[in-house]
Write a structure and sequence with these properties.
The complex is a heterodimer of chains A (483) and B (191).
Chain A lengths: L3 H32 L7 H31 L7 H24 L22 H30 L2 H4 L15 H32 L8 H35 L8 H13 L16 H30 L8 H23 L2 H7 L4 H30 L9 H23 L15 H32 L4 H6 L1
Helix pairs in contact in A: 1-2, 1-3, 1-14, 2-3, 2-4, 2-7, 2-12, 3-4, 4-6, 6-7, 6-8, 7-12, 8-9, 9-10, 10-12, 12-13, 12-14, 13-14
Chain B lengths: L2 H29 L10 H23 L15 E8 L2 E5 L15 E3 L3 E8 L4 E6 L5 E7 L5 E6 L4 E7 L11 E7 L6
Parallel strand pairs in B: 1-4, 3-9
Antiparallel strand pairs in B: 1-2, 4-7, 5-6, 5-8, 8-9
Classes of the chains: A mainly alpha (483), B alpha+beta (191).
The complex binds protoporphyrin IX containing FE and copper (II) ion (CU).
Amino acid sequence: MINLSLKRVTSVWIIAILVVFVITAIFGITMRFNQGGDIELSPVTFFSLMTAHGVTMVGIWSVAGMMAVNYLMARYVKVSTAVNVFALVLTVIGLVMLWTSTFVGYFHAGWTFLYPLPFFVAWESWATPLFLYSIAIFGIGWTVWTVAMLMQIYKKYSLAQSFAWQHFKRGYLVETPPFILITTVSLIGILICLITAVILLVLLFAEYYSNGTFTNDALLIKNLTYFFGHTIINEALYLGVATLYELFPEVSGRPKFKTTWYVALAWNCTLVFVLTAFFHHLYMDFVQPVGLQLVGQFASYFASLPSAAVTVFSIVILVYKNPIKWSLTNTLFFIGVIGWIIGGFGAVIDATISNNFVLHNTLWVPAHFHTYNAMGNVLFSLAFFYWVANEFAGTKVVPRSEKLRIGLLLIGGFGFVLMFYIAGAYSIPRRYSVYPDELALGRNLASYGGWFATIYVIAILLFLGEIVNKCLKVFSPRSSAAA
Amino acid sequence: MSLQPKLLLIFLFTAGAIAITAWFIYSTSKLSSQEHGGMENPLRKRFTAFIILFALSAVFLSITIPKSPYFRFSGENPSHVVFIAAKQYNFIMSNQAIDPKKPGGGEDIVIPADELVEFRVTSLDVNHGFGIYDSRGEIVAQTQAMPGYVNRLRWRFITPGHYNIFCLEYCGNAHSFMRGSLTVTEAAAEK
Ligand code: HEM
Ligand SMILES: [Cu+2]
């Protein structure tokens, strides 16, 4: 059941996420203008911004997915507001610690803090443990939250039902809604990667506090790091897809999506393959066993293809030649799917070992992940925010033309990522604060990218006011009286 | 044309096709009324689409896997070995093995074209990347430099000239300035 307290935490989450998003996007724009030579930051400032930007973005869009499925889950099972608030508080504390480590302590080892860089201290010495503890605080909050949600699912559904296995047979009694299936698949994945993060942190702290008596193996830690980093950002996207399955038909005025055997099969594929796709981050480590490299390419193809294909086809069937009530919510979902598959295609190109040989760690990498994040997952979340804000305000999502906001979003967003793709194809490396003269092309592209990103952020600001205003309605005295 | 521009074109073409298709599907919904509508035979079409997609992936996989760098030149014997020890923030390159305790400064590397070279790449501190760029500023080959491990990268240079090495793994605040170079000379005369 959706009660007032759930609405209130959700509302606080949304406002906090949007505000932090705009600030963090401005970090990104600042980086692009520095790479373009329009402004001049010291490399330390640049990389502190980059580290804060990466962790914060991954963090807020993961919790955006979590809190959205938490809200919608209340339609099917009981959910705990206390745990939700607990996660919110720990997320805020973690964020304060993170930004202190990067902006007061100048910690700048990148969002993946790849071992052993965090221990080659080029910042305040307290910043390394503070950064690692901030990750631990996020980890605790989100693990408790994930476990709590999974427990609620398992009070109603059996393990097999939560994965929709009964749909592989004829004549089943209980239907697993697609929302529950995708949420379960994603939460299980998130739980596994949070557990990996714990192992990773324990190993790093063991070395940190051992005074040189214990050192880690760089290859092992790199595997753990990318298992965690790659998986969490992908699962965050799948949470967004779960909200899409729940809301897209509803706001379009069409019948709900149903779980069929191939929907079940596709998401079970994702569950398994997403866990081994991360090997593509180690393609250029030739000491990694070749078998794992091949598993990486195979899994990269089959983790995303089936679920993306099933989702796209469901949307196509729903929309094609059918009268749809287009509003901001389903338009954002629709564009988000386009961003997701275009970014996914960019990812598949890079996840092909023979291509990765010339694309690895070029700007092709931020190109594809910004496509399915900034033009995919962010839009899924915005669609949810907009829909739920109208619920809070008791207003209806009215079908109306949204040419300005959508137009700016499309031009800004796709222009921004296009500059990354072109730069990637021209061998411009990622994570360079400035580009050497031989790669001067990267500068112009960075500048253009900065301007496109500015347009994108303006579009976001145009949504923000309306959403925040409506979210604040749940704190008005009238709304508590109604509850 | 080298690989990168081809990939960019394939990507842009596909992304454009996706966008146009999406626009088309969106506009069919704007024109339609309640009465007629929907896709005919959606299940058949979905099935066909999936089969095509899987066939394409299978083709892609079987074409690209054999081209992986792990298998290229693997049956041959390199005629040159170059040792590389990366450290914050430069590449020590030498024709002799490098002692990690006393790495020294290395020397200029000159390689004849058309001969198979093996780069043995490691790091003395954090992770780095060893990216070889041709004179047009395009990556021709790369591998990672990881502490405690040696990655063996085999390559046969075709075009003589000056090649830059740029670091392709974030290694700290001077990462963008970490570089090296090597020279490829005309192929040696008949052997
Ligand atoms: C307008 C919005 C955004 C702008 C302008 C922006 C800009 C940037 C820039 C310039 C970089 C550094 C690229 C490089 O040279 O390697 C970067 C990295 C990154 N961005 Fe964004 N970004 C935006 C949105 C997002 C979103 C929505 C996400 C969601 C997950 C995200 C996640 C990341 C991550 C994980 C990195 C890598 C950080 C690292 O290498 O340590 N960004 N972004
Ligand atoms: Cu570097």
